[in-house]
Amino acid sequence: MRRVLLAAVILGTATAAQAANMPDFLRGSLVPAVAARPNWQGFYIGGQASYGAADMDFTNSAKDLLDKLLNNVDIQDKFNISSWPLQGKTSTQNSGFGGFLGYNAQWTDVVVGVELNYIHGKFFNKSGGTQSRTFMFPTDYQTSATIKADSSMLIRDYGSLRVRGGYAWGCFLPYLFGGVALGQADINRVASYDIKYKYVGTQIPPLPDLPAIGSFTDSLSDTANSHFIYGYSGGLGIDMMLVANLFVRAEWEYMRFTAPVDTTVNTVRAGIGYKF
Description:
This protein is mainly β. Helix content is 13%, strand content 63%. It has 4 helices and 8 strands, in the order ααβααβββββββ. A hairpin with a 3-residue loop joins β7 and β8.
């Protein structure tokens, strides 16, 4: 009996030692498992798709053109006609695609990084308007003034250089970010005026510096293709580690651009990336 027990103990010990020396692929899965606390530190790269809306405010987009056109015109000095409201606000929606590249530094569960984010898409809209008024100016003259403005804007490429901070929670990394918004747009603007004077008084002859009937027209355009636009951005998102260093992402970003056409862009995005 003692010999049987002794043999069983020796056999069990040998079997355990042999199992411990087996290669990993014989003892478990061929696919590397995600660690209980993934390491987010290092460089990463990825691709993404987006859908969003661009709100464009054309209200004052042509005012600088009208100011130049009407410089030293008496009716502008008197009634400031270049400030008449001609255009309005518009909104458009579209999808896009792009990529991102960044670097993370990690301290236990706190992750801080810098990222360059890019989207190629197409946001286009336009606005135009005309306004006319009639005055008794100057004395004994009926003056009719008409001003017109048309503007359009097409954003093709946009993105942000951002700083982000997050907190690792298991396989998830929720984060906030803020930074500089950058973009490229085609902006076209045209402004014009038409001013007519008609003498309706009783003075004979009429005022020496104005004819009995007169008409003055002029226009000015500005075309800026591939115009650089900039502003600020902010948003939030979440990364989730899948296997090894492969992760997926979902986020929302708000961008505001300062340009002749004041523009805000809101997008939601989904992406996939790899951390080196």
